[in-house]
Amino acid sequence: MATTKKTAPEAAKTETAKVEAVKAEEAVETVTAADTKVEEVAAPAKATAKKTTKKAATKKTTTKKAAKKEEAAEVAAPAATTEIFVEYNGVQVSGEEIVRLVKGSYGKDVTDLKIYVKPEDNRAYYVADGEAGSVRVLFI
Fold it and tell me: What angle (nearest 5°) sits at the alpha carbon of residue 34, between those of residues 32 and 40?
């Protein structure tokens, strides 16, 4: 086997080329390792993003369903009406009539009104905006 002697500059060039080749291989390995880590980190992030999106979509659906149920309940249940009648000795007087009599007697707009009806006296006693009074109601 014949060996050829290399001159010092040629040997240095060969060594430099070998070092550069090793550095290049290490750089490729580092980049590959970094890419793997990035992919590993990115994968859980994507999974978390998908879960969050699914949860948000579920919440929106639930909210929409609840809103539809409330709307259906509002449509299904008509407004309640209340009527009051006071009957004494066979004569009946409506609550609206008593309120109308009290407001007419008070003479002003009322914001707070409490009425007590006493048929034996043919009277409706009231407190309107802190002022007490009474009005005659006919149960005859």
Answer: 105
pLDDT tier at 124, thresholds 50, 70, 90: very high
pLDDT at 78: 75
Which residues 6+ apart lie within 8 Å of 115 measured at CB?
98, 99, 102, 124, 125, 126
pLDDT over 90 at 133, yes or no: yes
The amino acid that residue 124 corresponds to is A
